What does this fold into?
Amino acid sequence: MNRLEILRATAAELGAAIAARTVTSVEVTRAFLDQIEAVDGRVHAFLHVDAAGALAQAAAIDERLDGGEKLGPLAGVPLALKDIFCQEGIPTTAGSKTLEGWRPPYDATVTRRLQEAGIVILGKTNMDEFAMGSSTENSAYGPTHNPWDLDRIPGGSGGGSAASLAAFEAPLAMGTDTGGSIRQPGAVTGTVGVKPTYGGTSRYGVIAMASSLDQPGPCARTVLDAALLHEVIAGHDPADSTSIDAPVPPVVEAARSGDVTGLRIGIVTELGGEGYAPGVEQRFREALDLLREAGAEIVEVSCPHFRYALGAYYLIMPSEVSSNLARYDAMRYGLRVGDDGARSTEEVMSLSRAAGFGDEVKRRIMLGTYALSSGYYDAYYGSAQRVRTLIDQDFDAAFQDVDVLVSPATPTTAFKLGERVADPLAMYKSDLCTIPSNMAGNAAGSFPCGLAPEDGLPVGFQVMAPPLADDRVYRVGAALERKLAERWGTGTLTDQLADGEAGAYLNLKEA
Amino acid sequence: MDEVLDYDDVMADYDAVLGLEVHVELNTASKMWCGCTTAFGGEPNTHTCPVCLGLPGSLPVVNGKAVESAIRIGLALNCEIAEWCRFARKNYFYPDMPKDYQISQYDEPLCFDGHVDVEVDGQTYRIDIERVHMEEDAGKLTHVGGATGRIQGADHSLLDYNRAGVPLMEIVTKPVRGLGDKAPEVGRAYMALLRDLMRALDVSEARMERGNMRCDANVSLMPKGAAELGTRTETKNVNSLRSVENALRYEIRRQGAVLASGGRVKQETRMWQEDGGVTTAGRSKEQAEDYRYFPEPDLVPVAPSREWVEELRASLPEPPAQRRERLAGEWGFSELEMRDADAAGAIDLIEATVAAGTTPQAARKWWLGELARRANESGLELDEVAMAPAQVAELQRLLDAKTINDGLARKVIEGVLAGEGSPAEVVDARGLAIVSDDGALAEAVDRALAANADAAAKVRDGKVQAVGALIGAVMREMKGKADAAAVRELIMTKLG
It folds into this structure.
């Protein structure tokens, strides 16, 4: 395989080629490292590239395969790891100044499972600080640029992972989704991102933002690649008490099948209309037509409490944030400021936190501290939890009637860098469609469904399924992917990106 | 120095109301949320892992054995056991808490609404238990530099997280009223009961001096006949049973003086100063601290099945008070003897020694006599001295067989404690057996009579008490290895 064939191949294809020894993992890994070298100066998807470690890991996989060992379908395939996953000895910052230079002494369960599957970790990707944001502009290390338009945001918090896929710097990436941090970046970069059922993947070793909402999940350019990665990382982990002890849903089988005959799909009435870009709604409707053509039945479903989801989310999430981020107190690790021998512990803690955290992090810590305060707890945290229950009930009622729910993944396409920095509320609204599934803990994914006619930017189609029915998300995603490929006559949406003008600045043309 | 009134004067006008919050460190092998050992000591920060250091990304997992111990404590205190309860985060910044929050329980304790009866001077007092909940211990701060060892004036502080995450139970009473002038004694008796209970349940070493069991003693005064509770103080740093009683008595006298002078008792934390026998003002608690409790999202609820709870209830050991009463009857001990044995922590030891074949009185004699003295000298608890109940029983058998006498027995104990082996081995190795060769003894008697003619004459004249000197001389001659009664008999025979 030549350089472009490697970069443009799917992870499944790469895995098969490596297993067949038509290409080595080292060759594949080197191709992606070269691509990072070539384009990441413009995209800034990575905070840390571990070239030596990746090549060593690739060489080890090659050796095992050469020795006749049978490994999994993704063995030897490279991956971009969001900088929120602990990887032993590798700098892990969660996008924050406070963790600059910190090297975890242990691996996250997800990191370990990736390595056990023979997946080669290229490096750590950029993100909004502690996963708080929808644009990566809250990263302490500068924003990531959307490969579709370098002046636009790649989504967030997992903008680095999504951009690395769209820029063909990696065939696979890992994200975490607390309010949409996998799905929204997926939507605005034309890539696939799935938030598994809460408890379906382990949070152990994932730097916490909001414990009851955070969930690691796969990012890829195709539905099958995401499913293959999902299968690697999912499954019970005794180190995470909230991990579900149940078989992993048959996601790969569903992604291969893509059969939606007779499937009942519910459009969520509340997730559309005012505030939604016309091009987003248009591509969403077209996608529904394609699914209907594929044999699905489409109905409208109302989830009346979804309109309160964003408000409740911005009480529960900051409450947990205010507690989860307390440990960054400069006493044991991380940034330490003002320790001049004269200042008290409290002063050093305070100065360090003031210097180490960005504005958005501070804003949420303050919100959460307030919401949990005695006298306000019932009104804020307490009522938000009641709303959460109501959202759960909306989902339950809807899933009595339909097999999956669908909506646009985001109200708009990628906005310009800087456009919403001064307006937190506008920024928060990027996650309007994705938050309900975090609140209820069910499975949801975003799949590319075309480019909005008005700006030529990717639109995401969201599929939501009941807890532990993650396979339905993939089934619908795969059906859509196939129908769109037929219609477009190309492969994926990112293939259109590579074949278009962007191919030049993304180093995807023949030399 | 605070003013204090005479205790009886305070009691003439006021009733004292107690509230005791007791922390008990469980003796589980591993910590509350991770697999690290709970072993005491160890190089600082060696009994740690990402979880108990609160490293980014780490998550807690509940120690099932700790939950079991908590339920057993709750059942032994006649509590209800929650069918479903959650952990909660108690948020506050302090360097000994690696996460800057403590995982505890808030409004959903595992055990609640219990009670237990304590006895003081023949009178029974009921203590109502509000709750028993689970939480984690903090690390240990050592302040270096500065004169006091306290944080004020220290150059820097060292942190040891070996203790961080050790399972801790908090047992909280409801306000205890109707104690008359016995509040300090009841407080002490309650702590003694908890200690015995923890040991009987085998859930904690319950050593106050080591911090396995810690007591925050709340006390307030209310005018006699009043219905409303007075303002309370919470005294910390109370590290022994005796201190519980003394601290409570002191606080009652101090609060009495404040009220008598027309003052108002300040709601505050006070520190018991063992050396001075006083409490000193600590943190003011007038402004309740806001810990921003909320349900711990990293843990799932604890929902012990009723079957399990009943299984645990059925396997509870005999309550300590009931057991003491039974043993006193079986052993024929007086109330005083039993109380002494209890106070010395000797009941289990006596029981085991009796089981090994010794009479209760003989067992009592060794444990409360020579062994208690030795333990005291070495600063050890009685059950820490290096002599097992079976060895005490063996010692007594040697004594009964007249292989050794009382004096030799003390030397045998010395040998056993020095690690020289079993009592029989020590007797052999040290050559401590009584000389049973009549010829040798008769010669020694003859020599003693010859050398102490005066004393011999007195005995002959009927002054029998003078025989002591003769026996002493023989024993010296025999290097103690003779049976004093046999020596006496021989002397009397020889002197007609």
